[in-house]
User: Fold this.
Amino acid sequence: MDVKLCILGSGPAGLTAALYAARGNLAPLVVAGAQPGGQLTTTTMVENYPGFPDGIMGPELMETWRKHAERFGTRVLSAMATRVDLARRPFTIETDEGPVRCRALIIATGASPNLLGLPSEQRYMGRGVSTCATCDGYFFKDQEVAVVGGGDSAMEEALYLSKLSRKVTVIHRRDRLRASKIMAERAQTNPRITFQWNSAVEEILGKEDHGIRGVRLKRTDSGERSEVNVDGLFIAIGHSPNTALFKGQLAMDALGYLKVTEGTMTSVPGVFAAGDVVDHVYRQAVTAAGMGCMAAMDAERWLERQGE
Ligand code: NAP
Assistant:
């Protein structure tokens, strides 16, 4: 398939880029990726997206966003990009639905949840261990669960789980939360949420038959070990950018985030990037959307300068 503009990713950055590019008559093709709609589809109520004073559910917001982009001529391909060749134009994107050739490319592949790196975490992933409370929380209705992390994501997971589970323990490696004041306050005043400070998960303990029965913690100050009995463990310790596809082809920082200059241009002219794949500081839907808009405008102007 030959298109003027291809957009990889269908979260806030990708779909906003698509909306603007479609209105700019570029008839963009969005390759939706592994998680159509992006990270907001795994969240519940989005309370800080401007224009929604009563909040809006994440999946509903993204569905509306896709329809908005499609209304102006965006095509959304339900596919995963498997390989890219950015060495010559048109750029080639191999997908599991066939190759796409494009004159300009916007990368909005976002970021994915980090894991603790314990072998037991892989063993029990989806069988007691999860990175998404809204996806898996219901499996632990009226049971006891723990959340690892001290940021907004961890607080959000804990607050969500507190509505379903009997007891939620937040395990944090320091004695102070990184989360915003409002989220921290909500979690700390919730009677179903308790905190294990200065603690790291050393091992996830399994049941003999299936699932998990608890975690072994090691205190980060004294080294003392203890066990907490839980039926579910939710890991919310930040994210890493989805940039494996571009290694060796685009400039990245030490953490693997794409480097951009002149607005949203990557190290390859004609390839732009926006959202969490670039930004590890703000990482909000509204900032990703803003960058998506910038990338579409940058791509449009760049194509114009090439006489296309
Ligand atoms: P984050 O702010 O980077 O927090 C990650 C947390 O995980 C930190 O508390 C960190 O501990 C801990 N951590 C990192 N690696 C760890 C490891 N290996 N073992 C144990 N703990 C580890 O990430 P986030 O919570 O995902 O939030 C990311 C961004 O999204 C933020 O800008 C946040 O404001 C935003 N966000 C906003 C909302 C909302 O407003 N409703 C909801 C979700 C996310 P340290 O504190 O010790 O570093």
In short: The mean pLDDT is 95.
